[in-house]
């Protein structure tokens, strides 16, 4: 190419790139109202954004991948935890995690009840924004450690202590896609709010919810306990009841319930089909 051809190529390429960029910008702005659910931005959501900024939450947390990456990503936190849990947590984080035991240093911000309600409304709106999969690997809200060790669950996995061969039968991969246990395991990890965000299948690893290791055995013992007031008569019925009516039995501990209401979302009974609930029951009942 001579100088004239090179100059023309550069000008044409720049013009095409500019047109494409402007077109994508216009199209993005066209989709923003739908992607962000802007019609759901209430006064409470606006006030909640102010609370988020006033308390400098972004200095530790991230939303949409933006923030300090010091504490968990909160983009989908209301789907992972639910309003009752978040309300109780923000009132007194020390009831859930503490620095000595869990290496968590979330301070008690002293928020007023209306501030808590508003910031949760803001985070709920954030969770429903179509972020098209970004960030691709959000920081999961996990934590907890194995009693008697200084290792978190993720560290134990890294060191090979949670390999497939050491998992109980119900937690091992199942190749048959029609197997209800395999389908239940997939639901456990993918249903929204995801079960795996709050429950560990490792013994003694309590996250936002209690460990589900030995679920079948523990369910049978709970039914026989005088503290149990539910309707289940078998371990399978108890597991099903725990999924569709989580407040029927409240697991001991201040971080799992408040005022007689479980922090576990009560929506699974209507959001999941009976077949899906059967699959979850089959998976959880496989942990003897």
TrEMBL record:
> What are the entry keywords?
Electron transport, Heme, Iron, Metal-binding, Transport
- List the residue ranges of the region (Disordered): 150-175
Q: Which InterPro entries match?
A: Cyt_c-like_dom, Cyt_c-like_dom_sf, Cytochrome_c550/c551-like
- Polar residues biased stretches: 151-164
Gene Ontology molecular functions: electron transfer activity; heme binding; metal ion binding
Q: Write out the transmembrane intervals.
A: none
> Could you tell me which residue ranges the Cytochrome c domain spans?
43-127, 179-288
Task: Tell me the PANTHER family matching this sequence.
Answer: CYTOCHROME C-553-LIKE
- Give the protein name, as stated in the record: C-type cytochrome
Source species: Pollutimonas harenae
């Amino acid at each position: 190419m001579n100088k004239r051809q090179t100059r023309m190529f550069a000008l044409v390429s720049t013009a095409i790139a500019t047109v494409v960029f402007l077109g994508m910008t216009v199209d993005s702005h066209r989709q923003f109202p739908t992607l962000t659910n802007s019609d759901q931005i209430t006064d409470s959501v606006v006030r909640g954004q102010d609370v988020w900024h006033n308390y400098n939450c972004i200095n530790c947390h991230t939303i949409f991948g933006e923030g300090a990456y010091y504490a968990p990503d909160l983009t989908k936190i209301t789907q992972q935890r639910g309003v009752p849990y978040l309300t109780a947590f923000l009132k007194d984080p020390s009831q859930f995690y503490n620095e000595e035991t869990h290496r968590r240093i979330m301070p008690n911000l002293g928020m007023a009840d209306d501030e808590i309600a508003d910031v949760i409304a803001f985070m709920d709106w954030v969770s429903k924004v179509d972020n098209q999969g970004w960030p691709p690997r959000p920081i999961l809200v996990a934590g907890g450690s194995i009693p008697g060790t200084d290792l978190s669950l993720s560290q134990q996995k890294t060191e090979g202590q949670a390999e497939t061969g050491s998992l109980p039968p119900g937690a091992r991969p199942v190749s048959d896609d029609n197997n209800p246990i395999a389908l239940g395991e997939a639901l456990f990890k993918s249903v929204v709010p995801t079960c795996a965000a709050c429950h560990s299948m490792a013994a003694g690893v309590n996250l936002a919810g209690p460990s589900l290791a030995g679920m079948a055995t523990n369910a049978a013992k709970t039914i026989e306990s005088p503290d149990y007031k539910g309707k289940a008569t078998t371990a399978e019925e108890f597991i099903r009841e725990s999924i569709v009516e989580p407040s029927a039995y409240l697991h001991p501990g201040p971080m799992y319930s408040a005022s007689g209401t479980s922090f576990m979302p009560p929506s699974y009974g209507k959001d999941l089909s009976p077949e899906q609930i059967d699959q979850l029951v089959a998976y959880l009942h496989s942990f003897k």
